[in-house]
Amino acid sequence: MCGIVAVIGSREAAPLLLGGLKQLEYRGYDSAGLATVASRENADFGLMTCQRAKGKLANLAALVEKGGAEGFLGIGHTRWATHGKPEERNAHPHRDTASEIAVVQNGIIENYRSLKEELEAEGVVFNSETDTEVIPHLIARELKSLELESSVKTGAMLLSAVQKVSLQLTGAYAIAVIWSKTPEALVVARKQAPLLIGLGEGEFLCASDTPALAGFTRTILPMEDGEVALLTPLGIELYDAQGIRQQRSPTLLSGSDYVTDKRNFRHYMLKEIHEQPEIAELWVSRHLPEGLSVDTPVAFPFDNSFYQGIERVQILACGTSRHAALVGAYLLEQFSGIPTSVFYASEFRYAAPPLMPNTLTIGVTQSGETADTLAALLMEATRRTEHGDPAFASRQLGVTNRPESSLARQVPNILDIGAGMEVGVAATKTFLGQLFAFYGLALMFAARRKSRSQEEILNLTNELRAVPGQLRLLVKKHDQISEELAPHFANIQDVIFLGRGINYPIALEGALKLKEISYIHAEGYPAGEMKHGPIALLDPSVPVISIAMPGVVFDKVLSNAQEAKARDAQLIGIAPEGPDTKIFDSLLPLPKVSEWISPLFSVIPMQLLSYHIAAHRGLDVDQPRNLAKSVTVE
Ligand code: F6R
Predict the structure, then answer these.
(1) Which domains does the chain possess?
(2) Which mutation among 367, 400, 410 tests ligand 1's pocket best, with the greatest number of atoms within 8 A of CB?
(3) pLDDT score recorded for residue 123
(4) Which atom of ligand 1 is nearest to the CA of 323?
């Protein structure tokens, strides 16, 4: 997490840095900071100014407005705290003892403790609790020995010092470094954390993610793992981890929509919930156009060989994306007949199951930057390559909302969910997009494997085609119902979400949404599991929200709800209206759709209820405490 930006060119750096950081604030908002070096044009040529503020970027912007940050060279940072509390002294940039070198970092320096001890033994005094602060001190040490060899201070010297320091650091990180003695040189480096160079006219803007570059340029050079670059107004020198000069052509940013307009909504999250019918419509028009054959019911960008010979699927993901993966696994197993397992990416990395042949590994990540998911996919690809047997070869697919992300550069096949920029930290529309991706895969595998009749495939296809219209009505209706219900949660401490079968992951998602934006403790359970312990939590103060959609487990879910009611729990149903669902104290009504497609509907009241509860409590819905949109640390 954290977002870094760095700029060098012929314009004042501070406004560019603040503009870039604004686009990266989704990566963390515990503190922000920037450092600039005054250019030749300034009276204070070579003076480094560093400004930092606790809390959101607006605090830093207010500080910068008072003046001081001058020059065409600068670096900036927005922080999600890992090492050290979210206080000003832990805010980036961090500097060496002489305050000549400033560094911003995104990631974690795993061996910082031993490096810190080494530096402290040499007399260095640390000002922060961060892992990052070792970097400027190490660079200062390297520069000192380089300065003994030559008295002329050059960008090449800074580059060389950073290259040497990079070899001493372990972990996953991206850094940007400036030195007050070289106001026309910027050095950036990355190792397993994203960093892109944007090429302008005689100027460069580097950033952790594309939105920060979109207003600056569409010509980008994504840095590869282990690379270090020296940027000057004259150009880029790019080196690999071995110090060998690299030549690569820049690419053009794809036409993704980076417009982050709140329209007339109070929060981005509400706007994004309301965008879901449009996203469904776009997906249907792109991937389920009329006229496709029953053998190829979905227009996906893969040829036959992609589906051939796959005997099992494993899905790696985190958080909300993992919940989408669980719905996906249900569809792939129950509809398409392929054994499918879902893993927390963070667990898979260190405890992967034994290799099985002919396995498709799917990584699901809306941001395409989640460190655990990327590392788990890489680890899986590596161990399969090392195995050597062609049956065990790596076959990977990435499902993402960011086709230009690190995931897309790492994985050979990508499904773009096309949900448009999601600003709210709590994922909503990207979850729906991920679900649609899995419906498409389930249809394709069922057709290829002939595990479903033509009629069943056609039925599901037609049901999916009808979803956008039904969602339009549903979102509108539930926005109002949830707003009315929200005040009843004013003093609630705990909520239980129940679901079964294909809607069990939606219960998990409902609980996650409520926790992360309203800070109310919530648990999602498979409804049948309640009686094995969690039922002890129930009393009249604990609402139970139960998803009951007609289908294989409908009666079972209703019985489980009755069990909760018998313990005086307040029962809220997410279910179609009818005699069976009268048992609920309140009902969030859904249309009578088939159980297969029901998650596309049952998730809507979950999202809206969480949103309205948090908004009613006056919380920062779009940027909840302690969270970040893109989790780029392990
Ligand atoms: C919750 C949420 C997170 C993410 C998780 C994975 O609303 O957004 O749980 O789902 O951090 O993120 P991605 O999908 O970017 O890999």
Answers:
(1) 3-252 (3.60.20.10), 268-616 (3.40.50.10490)
(2) 367
(3) 96
(4) 10
The reply to whether ligand 1 has any atom less than 6 angstroms from the CB of 321 is yes
Structure tokens at 153: 């201070």
Pocket test for ligand 1, best of 321, 347, 377 (most atoms within 8 A of CB): 321
For 24, 34, 61, 66, the CA distances from 19, given in Å and listed in that order, are: 9, 12, 10, 17
pLDDT score for 68:
84
Alpha helices, DSSP H, located in 486-567 = 504-518, 554-565
Cα(406)–Cα(383) distance, integer angstroms: 20
Q: CB within 8 A of 559, min separation 6: which ones?
A: none
Q: Which residue has 């010979």 as its token pair? A: 309
Give the C-alpha separation, 484 to 492, whole Å: 15
The pLDDT score that the predictor gives to residue 255 is 55
* Res 210: pLDDT: 87
In 86-165, DSSP assigns E strands to: 94-95, 101-109
Angle of helix 599-616 relative to helix 429-449, nearest 10 degrees, comes to 170
Q: Which amino acid is at 469?
A: G
Counting as low any pLDDT under 50, the low residues of the chain are: 257
DSSP 45: T
Q: How far apart are CA 510 and CA 610, in angstroms?
A: 8
- Closest residue by Cα to atom 3, ligand 1, is 319
User: Could you give the CA distance from residue 435 to residue 211 in angstroms, rounded to a whole number?
Assistant: 25
Token digits of residue 99: 């305050």
Q: Is 406 in the pocket of ligand 1 (CB under 6 A)?
A: no
2 counts as catalytic: yes
Residue 629 is a catalytic residue: yes
The reported pLDDT for the residue numbered 20 is 95
Q: What is the pLDDT of residue 373?
A: 97
Element at 622 (helix H, strand E): none
Which value, to the nearest 10 degrees, does the dihedral of the CA atoms of residues 489, 494, 495, 500 take? 180
